[in-house]
Design brief:
mainly alpha
């Protein structure tokens, strides 16, 4: 009963703060660029406004076009459910780490289906680029997860995060942690892989696939992106600070709250700082970026096996 309650609290918390995290990144980015920036809470209003608008869907669209937003949002909610983000033993028990990698890939595949079903030049271009990036990043994802599983002695997400394992307490994982940061940027379509704030033909990847969506479908896709970014930031934070065991005493709740707040603020600021100080890489240099992530992950895996 307590575990179910904790799971419910975790999911509700992630779903509530996800738009705020996206808004906070934009606010930090504006401040670092010398602009005042909109309130982080504006994202909630934007999502609600988009949700109220009507669908504009061509008659040539198939059922796949309508299914994609539900699958993508469902994958994002599953990530919030399956990972122990608040306590060491919260989340769905015994979720395999490599199944998690497959679920992440599933989201990209259905986004590609949506982009192709639109039958537009932008949709096809974005789908082609997304599949290229997915083929390059998947080896790094699997190798990174293999390093964490080796140290934990299990491929279960619960065993990995439930042992209080951090990149600091296990120095062999520092390279894998660095690879996970690069993977986070790629999976969330952030700099230098993609620019989430543009509709320019030369830079679009993720945005090109959702250009034809409007109304509630567009709101669902944008909300899913916010949830995914929040989950990845919390994962990185959990590899820096040790989560307490499941308990509802004031001290434990305070530690969990402080950890989540610190993770969100520091992660959002670091992401905004990086995006304000670097330029987006040319698409044809993406193999260099993904190669860095893969060889960091591979070096981390070899180090964990040796140590």
């Amino acid at each position: 009963m307590i575990t179910a309650l904790t799971l419910l609290i975790q999911v509700v918390l992630v779903l509530l703060i996800a738009p705020f995290v996206t808004g906070l990144v934009r606010w930090f980015k504006a401040r670092l660029q010398g602009r005042q920036g909109a309130s982080p809470l504006l994202v909630y209003y934007a999502l609600l406004t988009t949700l109220k608008k009507e669908h504009v869907i061509s008659a040539s669209r198939s059922w796949m076009f309508r299914l994609v937003p539900f699958i993508v949002l469902g994958v994002a909610v599953f990530l919030a459910l399956s990972l122990p983000l608040l306590f060491s033993d919260s989340g769905i028990s015994q979720v395999d780490l490599f199944v998690l990698a497959g679920v992440l890939a599933l989201s990209s595949v259905f986004l590609v289906f949506g982009g192709l079903d639109a039958a537009t030049a932008f949709g096809g271009m974005g789908a082609s680029r997304e599949m290229t990036l997915a083929a390059l990043i998947e080896p790094a994802v699997l190798t990174t997860f293999a390093a964490f599983a080796t140290v934990a002695g299990s491929a279960s997400v619960q065993d990995l995060f439930g042992q209080g394992m951090t990149a600091i307490s296990h120095p062999a994982l520092l390279l894998s942690f660095a690879a996970l940061i690069l993977i986070t940027l790629a999976e969330n379509a952030r700099y230098p892989v993609d620019n989430p704030a543009t509709h320019l033909e030369l830079t679009m990847v993720h945005e090109a696939m959702i250009l034809e969506y409007s109304g509630p479908y567009l709101a669902m896709l944008e909300y899913a992106s916010s949830i995914k970014l929040t989950v990845f930031l919390l994962i990185l934070g959990n590899l820096v600070w040790v989560k307490p065991d499941l308990a509802f005493d004031p001290t434990t709740v305070g530690l969990v709250g402080a950890g989540v707040v610190a993770t969100v603020i520091v992660g959002s600021f670091a992401l905004a700082l990086m995006e304000s100080s670097t330029a987006k890489m040319r698409f044809f240099r993406m193999q260099e970026y993904m190669s860095i992530a893969f060889f960091l992950a591979l070096s981390g895996l070899i180090l964990t096996l040796v140590v």
